[in-house]
UniProtKB/TrEMBL annotation:
GO molecular function, one term: oxidoreductase activity
Family: Belongs to the LDH2/MDH2 oxidoreductase family.
Lineage: Bacteria, Pseudomonadati, Pseudomonadota, Alphaproteobacteria, Hyphomicrobiales
Protein name: Oxidoreductase
Keyword Lyase listed: no
Pfam families linked to this entry: Ldh_2 (PF02615)
Keyword entries, A-Z: Oxidoreductase
Cross-referenced InterPro entries: Mal/L-sulf/L-lact_DH-like_ah, Mal/L-sulf/L-lact_DH-like_NADP, Mal/L-sulfo/L-lacto_DH-like_sf, Malate/L-lactate_DH-like
Origin species: Devosia soli
Length: 345
Protein backbone atom coordinates (compact mmCIF):
# COMPACT_ATOMS: atom_id res chain seq x y z
CA UNK A 1 0.00 0.00 0.00
CA UNK A 2 1.27 3.48 -0.84
CA UNK A 3 2.52 5.56 2.11
CA UNK A 4 -0.15 7.67 3.81
CA UNK A 5 1.90 10.82 3.23
CA UNK A 6 1.64 10.43 -0.56
CA UNK A 7 -0.46 13.04 -2.39
CA UNK A 8 -4.00 11.94 -3.26
CA UNK A 9 -5.93 12.48 -6.48
CA UNK A 10 -9.60 12.04 -7.39
CA UNK A 11 -10.33 8.73 -9.10
CA UNK A 12 -11.94 10.37 -12.15
CA UNK A 13 -8.83 12.48 -12.72
CA UNK A 14 -6.57 9.46 -12.31
CA UNK A 15 -8.74 7.40 -14.66
CA UNK A 16 -8.68 10.05 -17.39
CA UNK A 17 -4.90 10.53 -17.19
CA UNK A 18 -4.19 6.79 -17.28
CA UNK A 19 -6.46 6.44 -20.31
CA UNK A 20 -4.74 9.41 -21.97
CA UNK A 21 -1.25 7.98 -21.49
CA UNK A 22 -2.26 4.55 -22.83
CA UNK A 23 -3.97 6.20 -25.80
CA UNK A 24 -0.82 8.21 -26.51
CA UNK A 25 1.13 4.94 -26.44
CA UNK A 26 -1.21 3.57 -29.11
CA UNK A 27 -3.31 1.09 -27.14
CA UNK A 28 -6.65 0.33 -28.78
CA UNK A 29 -9.79 1.66 -27.13
CA UNK A 30 -10.97 -1.79 -26.05
CA UNK A 31 -7.65 -2.98 -24.62
CA UNK A 32 -6.89 0.22 -22.76
CA UNK A 33 -10.43 0.40 -21.31
CA UNK A 34 -9.83 -3.03 -19.75
CA UNK A 35 -6.40 -2.03 -18.45
CA UNK A 36 -7.73 1.21 -16.93
CA UNK A 37 -10.58 -0.66 -15.23
CA UNK A 38 -8.30 -3.31 -13.72
CA UNK A 39 -5.60 -0.86 -12.62
CA UNK A 40 -8.12 1.48 -11.05
CA UNK A 41 -9.65 -1.43 -9.15
CA UNK A 42 -6.25 -2.28 -7.69
CA UNK A 43 -5.49 1.33 -6.78
CA UNK A 44 -8.87 1.79 -5.10
CA UNK A 45 -8.67 -1.34 -2.94
CA UNK A 46 -5.09 -0.61 -1.88
CA UNK A 47 -3.15 -3.03 -4.07
CA UNK A 48 -0.93 -0.21 -5.29
CA UNK A 49 1.76 -2.53 -6.66
CA UNK A 50 -0.70 -3.59 -9.38
CA UNK A 51 -2.53 -0.29 -9.75
CA UNK A 52 -2.09 2.78 -11.92
CA UNK A 53 1.63 2.94 -11.07
CA UNK A 54 2.05 0.30 -13.83
CA UNK A 55 0.84 2.70 -16.53
CA UNK A 56 4.38 3.81 -17.37
CA UNK A 57 5.59 0.24 -17.69
CA UNK A 58 2.75 -0.73 -20.00
CA UNK A 59 3.33 2.33 -22.15
CA UNK A 60 7.01 1.45 -22.46
CA UNK A 61 6.15 -2.10 -23.53
CA UNK A 62 3.61 -0.82 -26.05
CA UNK A 63 6.28 1.46 -27.50
CA UNK A 64 8.89 -1.29 -27.59
CA UNK A 65 6.66 -3.81 -29.34
CA UNK A 66 6.33 -6.38 -26.56
CA UNK A 67 2.64 -5.51 -26.32
CA UNK A 68 0.36 -5.53 -29.35
CA UNK A 69 -1.38 -2.16 -29.54
CA UNK A 70 -4.48 -3.53 -31.25
CA UNK A 71 -4.89 -7.18 -30.24
CA UNK A 72 -7.56 -9.31 -31.89
CA UNK A 73 -8.76 -11.84 -29.34
CA UNK A 74 -9.64 -15.31 -30.63
CA UNK A 75 -11.93 -17.60 -28.64
CA UNK A 76 -11.89 -21.35 -29.27
CA UNK A 77 -14.54 -23.40 -27.49
CA UNK A 78 -12.94 -26.70 -26.47
CA UNK A 79 -15.82 -28.43 -24.71
CA UNK A 80 -19.22 -27.88 -23.16
CA UNK A 81 -17.65 -25.94 -20.31
CA UNK A 82 -14.18 -25.03 -21.56
CA UNK A 83 -12.50 -22.58 -23.92
CA UNK A 84 -9.11 -21.15 -24.84
CA UNK A 85 -8.46 -17.51 -25.68
CA UNK A 86 -5.53 -16.40 -27.83
CA UNK A 87 -4.72 -12.93 -26.45
CA UNK A 88 -2.65 -11.83 -29.47
CA UNK A 89 0.09 -10.48 -27.15
CA UNK A 90 -2.02 -7.53 -26.03
CA UNK A 91 -2.56 -6.05 -22.60
CA UNK A 92 -3.42 -8.98 -20.35
CA UNK A 93 -6.35 -7.18 -18.73
CA UNK A 94 -8.27 -7.24 -22.02
CA UNK A 95 -8.04 -11.01 -22.41
CA UNK A 96 -8.77 -11.64 -18.73
CA UNK A 97 -12.03 -9.67 -18.73
CA UNK A 98 -12.97 -11.44 -21.98
CA UNK A 99 -12.32 -14.77 -20.26
CA UNK A 100 -14.81 -13.86 -17.54
CA UNK A 101 -17.44 -13.05 -20.19
CA UNK A 102 -16.80 -16.33 -22.01
CA UNK A 103 -16.79 -18.23 -18.73
CA UNK A 104 -20.16 -16.79 -17.76
CA UNK A 105 -21.67 -17.83 -21.09
CA UNK A 106 -20.30 -21.35 -20.69
CA UNK A 107 -21.41 -21.61 -17.06
CA UNK A 108 -24.98 -20.62 -17.93
CA UNK A 109 -25.14 -23.72 -20.12
CA UNK A 110 -22.77 -26.20 -18.49
CA UNK A 111 -22.76 -25.03 -14.87
CA UNK A 112 -19.06 -24.23 -15.03
CA UNK A 113 -16.95 -22.29 -17.50
CA UNK A 114 -13.20 -22.93 -17.48
CA UNK A 115 -11.24 -20.57 -19.71
CA UNK A 116 -7.51 -20.66 -20.35
CA UNK A 117 -5.63 -17.75 -21.90
CA UNK A 118 -2.55 -18.04 -24.12
CA UNK A 119 -0.16 -15.47 -25.62
CA UNK A 120 -1.04 -12.86 -23.03
CA UNK A 121 0.92 -10.45 -20.84
CA UNK A 122 0.89 -9.12 -17.29
CA UNK A 123 -2.73 -8.66 -16.20
CA UNK A 124 -2.34 -6.84 -12.88
CA UNK A 125 -4.48 -7.81 -9.90
CA UNK A 126 -6.18 -11.19 -10.29
CA UNK A 127 -8.95 -10.05 -7.97
CA UNK A 128 -10.26 -7.65 -10.62
CA UNK A 129 -11.42 -10.59 -12.75
CA UNK A 130 -12.78 -12.72 -9.91
CA UNK A 131 -14.75 -9.65 -8.87
CA UNK A 132 -16.11 -9.12 -12.38
CA UNK A 133 -17.67 -12.59 -12.33
CA UNK A 134 -19.07 -12.21 -8.82
CA UNK A 135 -20.69 -8.90 -9.71
CA UNK A 136 -22.66 -10.81 -12.36
CA UNK A 137 -23.78 -13.39 -9.80
CA UNK A 138 -21.18 -16.12 -10.40
CA UNK A 139 -18.58 -17.71 -8.12
CA UNK A 140 -15.29 -16.97 -9.89
CA UNK A 141 -11.62 -17.97 -9.62
CA UNK A 142 -8.76 -16.25 -11.46
CA UNK A 143 -5.04 -16.95 -11.43
CA UNK A 144 -1.80 -16.46 -13.34
CA UNK A 145 1.80 -17.53 -12.98
CA UNK A 146 4.58 -14.95 -13.17
CA UNK A 147 8.35 -14.77 -13.52
CA UNK A 148 10.47 -16.43 -10.84
CA UNK A 149 11.22 -14.46 -7.68
CA UNK A 150 10.13 -16.82 -4.88
CA UNK A 151 12.18 -19.66 -3.43
CA UNK A 152 10.79 -23.13 -2.84
CA UNK A 153 10.54 -24.39 0.74
CA UNK A 154 14.18 -24.92 1.78
CA UNK A 155 15.14 -23.85 -1.75
CA UNK A 156 18.20 -21.81 -2.72
CA UNK A 157 17.05 -20.25 -5.99
CA UNK A 158 14.11 -18.32 -7.38
CA UNK A 159 11.56 -20.80 -8.70
CA UNK A 160 7.92 -19.67 -8.66
CA UNK A 161 6.50 -16.24 -9.27
CA UNK A 162 4.31 -14.49 -6.72
CA UNK A 163 1.47 -16.43 -8.44
CA UNK A 164 -1.80 -14.98 -7.12
CA UNK A 165 -4.98 -16.91 -6.40
CA UNK A 166 -8.19 -14.86 -6.45
CA UNK A 167 -11.72 -15.97 -5.57
CA UNK A 168 -14.95 -13.99 -5.41
CA UNK A 169 -18.60 -14.77 -4.75
CA UNK A 170 -21.86 -12.80 -4.82
CA UNK A 171 -23.62 -12.00 -1.54
CA UNK A 172 -27.29 -11.11 -0.95
CA UNK A 173 -26.57 -7.49 -0.04
CA UNK A 174 -23.46 -5.39 -0.42
CA UNK A 175 -20.27 -6.03 -2.29
CA UNK A 176 -18.91 -9.50 -3.06
CA UNK A 177 -16.83 -11.78 -0.87
CA UNK A 178 -13.34 -11.32 -2.32
CA UNK A 179 -10.01 -13.02 -1.66
CA UNK A 180 -6.98 -11.96 -3.70
CA UNK A 181 -3.72 -13.32 -2.34
CA UNK A 182 -0.18 -13.80 -3.53
CA UNK A 183 1.42 -17.14 -2.70
CA UNK A 184 4.64 -15.41 -1.60
CA UNK A 185 5.12 -14.20 1.95
CA UNK A 186 5.16 -10.53 0.87
CA UNK A 187 5.21 -8.69 -2.47
CA UNK A 188 8.57 -7.72 -3.97
CA UNK A 189 7.60 -4.06 -3.67
CA UNK A 190 7.67 -4.44 0.12
CA UNK A 191 11.36 -5.33 -0.10
CA UNK A 192 12.01 -2.31 -2.30
CA UNK A 193 10.15 -0.03 0.13
CA UNK A 194 12.19 -1.31 3.07
CA UNK A 195 15.38 -0.72 1.08
CA UNK A 196 14.41 2.88 0.44
CA UNK A 197 13.63 3.36 4.14
CA UNK A 198 16.70 1.36 5.26
CA UNK A 199 14.32 -0.56 7.53
CA UNK A 200 14.55 -4.22 8.52
CA UNK A 201 12.11 -6.69 6.99
CA UNK A 202 9.94 -8.95 9.18
CA UNK A 203 11.35 -12.36 10.00
CA UNK A 204 10.81 -15.17 7.51
CA UNK A 205 9.75 -13.29 4.38
CA UNK A 206 12.91 -12.94 2.26
CA UNK A 207 16.21 -14.70 1.61
CA UNK A 208 19.74 -14.07 0.39
CA UNK A 209 20.91 -15.46 -3.00
CA UNK A 210 21.89 -18.74 -1.31
CA UNK A 211 18.46 -19.18 0.26
CA UNK A 212 19.27 -18.09 3.81
CA UNK A 213 16.48 -16.11 5.48
CA UNK A 214 17.35 -12.47 6.11
CA UNK A 215 15.73 -9.35 7.53
CA UNK A 216 18.20 -7.06 5.75
CA UNK A 217 16.40 -5.63 2.69
CA UNK A 218 19.73 -4.86 1.03
CA UNK A 219 20.77 -8.53 1.22
CA UNK A 220 17.37 -9.89 0.16
CA UNK A 221 17.50 -11.39 -3.33
CA UNK A 222 14.32 -13.47 -3.36
CA UNK A 223 11.05 -13.86 -1.50
CA UNK A 224 10.05 -16.78 0.67
CA UNK A 225 6.78 -18.60 0.01
CA UNK A 226 3.69 -17.94 2.12
CA UNK A 227 4.26 -19.58 5.51
CA UNK A 228 7.88 -18.50 5.75
CA UNK A 229 10.73 -20.58 7.08
CA UNK A 230 8.66 -23.10 9.02
CA UNK A 231 5.52 -23.54 6.92
CA UNK A 232 6.55 -22.30 3.49
CA UNK A 233 5.80 -25.67 1.93
CA UNK A 234 2.16 -24.56 1.95
CA UNK A 235 2.82 -21.37 -0.01
CA UNK A 236 5.19 -23.14 -2.40
CA UNK A 237 2.54 -25.75 -3.18
CA UNK A 238 -0.13 -23.09 -3.71
CA UNK A 239 2.21 -21.27 -6.12
CA UNK A 240 2.36 -24.51 -8.05
CA UNK A 241 -1.45 -24.49 -8.28
CA UNK A 242 -1.25 -21.20 -10.18
CA UNK A 243 1.38 -22.64 -12.51
CA UNK A 244 -0.66 -25.80 -13.06
CA UNK A 245 -3.76 -23.90 -14.16
CA UNK A 246 -2.11 -20.96 -15.92
CA UNK A 247 0.87 -22.52 -17.67
CA UNK A 248 0.46 -26.29 -17.83
CA UNK A 249 -3.20 -26.43 -18.88
CA UNK A 250 -2.75 -23.60 -21.38
CA UNK A 251 0.60 -24.69 -22.83
CA UNK A 252 2.28 -21.39 -22.07
CA UNK A 253 5.39 -20.28 -20.16
CA UNK A 254 6.75 -21.74 -16.92
CA UNK A 255 7.74 -19.31 -14.18
CA UNK A 256 11.47 -19.80 -14.68
CA UNK A 257 11.27 -19.41 -18.47
CA UNK A 258 9.71 -15.95 -18.59
CA UNK A 259 11.44 -12.95 -20.05
CA UNK A 260 11.61 -10.83 -16.86
CA UNK A 261 8.90 -8.22 -16.54
CA UNK A 262 11.51 -5.64 -15.51
CA UNK A 263 15.13 -5.24 -16.49
CA UNK A 264 17.01 -6.29 -19.57
CA UNK A 265 17.19 -4.69 -22.98
CA UNK A 266 14.52 -6.78 -24.71
CA UNK A 267 11.18 -5.00 -24.68
CA UNK A 268 10.06 -6.25 -28.08
CA UNK A 269 9.62 -10.00 -27.55
CA UNK A 270 6.17 -11.08 -26.28
CA UNK A 271 6.19 -13.08 -23.02
CA UNK A 272 3.43 -15.61 -23.84
CA UNK A 273 1.86 -15.48 -20.40
CA UNK A 274 -0.96 -17.82 -19.48
CA UNK A 275 -3.93 -17.10 -17.21
CA UNK A 276 -6.90 -19.13 -16.07
CA UNK A 277 -10.46 -18.20 -15.12
CA UNK A 278 -13.11 -20.53 -13.69
CA UNK A 279 -16.73 -19.38 -13.47
CA UNK A 280 -19.40 -21.33 -11.56
CA UNK A 281 -23.16 -20.79 -11.84
CA UNK A 282 -24.88 -21.34 -8.46
CA UNK A 283 -28.15 -22.04 -10.31
CA UNK A 284 -26.62 -25.26 -11.64
CA UNK A 285 -25.84 -26.56 -8.14
CA UNK A 286 -28.11 -26.12 -5.08
CA UNK A 287 -29.61 -23.00 -6.65
CA UNK A 288 -28.84 -19.29 -6.55
CA UNK A 289 -31.35 -18.49 -3.78
CA UNK A 290 -30.02 -21.31 -1.62
CA UNK A 291 -26.45 -20.17 -2.19
CA UNK A 292 -27.18 -16.52 -1.41
CA UNK A 293 -29.03 -17.37 1.79
CA UNK A 294 -26.19 -19.68 2.84
CA UNK A 295 -23.38 -17.21 2.18
CA UNK A 296 -25.40 -14.50 3.92
CA UNK A 297 -25.70 -16.66 7.05
CA UNK A 298 -22.06 -17.66 6.80
CA UNK A 299 -20.84 -14.06 6.65
CA UNK A 300 -23.15 -12.97 9.45
CA UNK A 301 -21.76 -15.74 11.64
CA UNK A 302 -18.17 -14.96 10.65
CA UNK A 303 -18.40 -11.25 11.38
CA UNK A 304 -20.23 -11.94 14.63
CA UNK A 305 -17.65 -14.40 15.90
CA UNK A 306 -16.03 -13.51 19.27
CA UNK A 307 -12.68 -11.71 19.01
CA UNK A 308 -9.68 -11.49 21.28
CA UNK A 309 -9.07 -8.23 23.12
CA UNK A 310 -8.25 -5.48 20.67
CA UNK A 311 -8.96 -7.74 17.69
CA UNK A 312 -11.33 -7.50 14.75
CA UNK A 313 -12.78 -10.27 12.62
CA UNK A 314 -13.16 -9.50 8.92
CA UNK A 315 -14.41 -11.48 5.94
CA UNK A 316 -12.28 -11.52 2.78
CA UNK A 317 -13.00 -8.24 1.01
CA UNK A 318 -13.98 -6.23 4.08
CA UNK A 319 -10.63 -4.46 4.26
CA UNK A 320 -10.62 -3.82 0.51
CA UNK A 321 -14.11 -2.32 0.47
CA UNK A 322 -13.29 -0.07 3.43
CA UNK A 323 -10.15 1.12 1.65
CA UNK A 324 -12.12 1.71 -1.55
CA UNK A 325 -14.64 3.87 0.29
CA UNK A 326 -11.81 5.86 1.86
CA UNK A 327 -9.99 6.42 -1.42
CA UNK A 328 -13.15 7.38 -3.27
CA UNK A 329 -13.75 10.02 -0.63
CA UNK A 330 -10.17 11.19 -0.04
CA UNK A 331 -8.47 10.37 -3.34
CA UNK A 332 -5.99 7.75 -4.55
CA UNK A 333 -2.46 8.10 -3.11
CA UNK A 334 0.24 8.05 -5.78
CA UNK A 335 4.03 7.80 -5.61
CA UNK A 336 6.09 10.66 -7.08
CA UNK A 337 7.15 8.80 -10.24
CA UNK A 338 3.53 7.97 -11.10
CA UNK A 339 2.42 11.52 -10.39
CA UNK A 340 5.01 12.83 -12.84
CA UNK A 341 4.28 10.24 -15.54
CA UNK A 342 0.54 10.90 -15.43
CA UNK A 343 1.11 14.64 -15.61
CA UNK A 344 -0.45 15.32 -12.21
CA UNK A 345 2.49 17.22 -10.72
Amino acid sequence: MTDDISPRFAQDLVRSQVDLRLAEAGASEASRAAAVKAMLHASLVGVDSHGVRLTGHYCKMLGGGRLNKNPQLKVAKRGAGSALIHADDGLGHYAAYKAVEVGIDLAREAGVGAVGIQHSSHFGAAGAYALAGAEEGFVTFATTNTDSMVALFDGAQKFHGTNPLAFAAPVPEGRPWLLDMATSSIPLNRVLLHRSLDKDLPEGVAATPDGQPTTDPHEADMLLPLGGVDYGYKGAALAGVATLFSALLTGTTLDGDFIPMYGGDDISTPRNMGHFVLVIDPDKFAGRDVFLRAIGRYLESLRGSPVREGGRVMAPGDREWAEMDKRRAEGIPLDPDTVRFLGLA
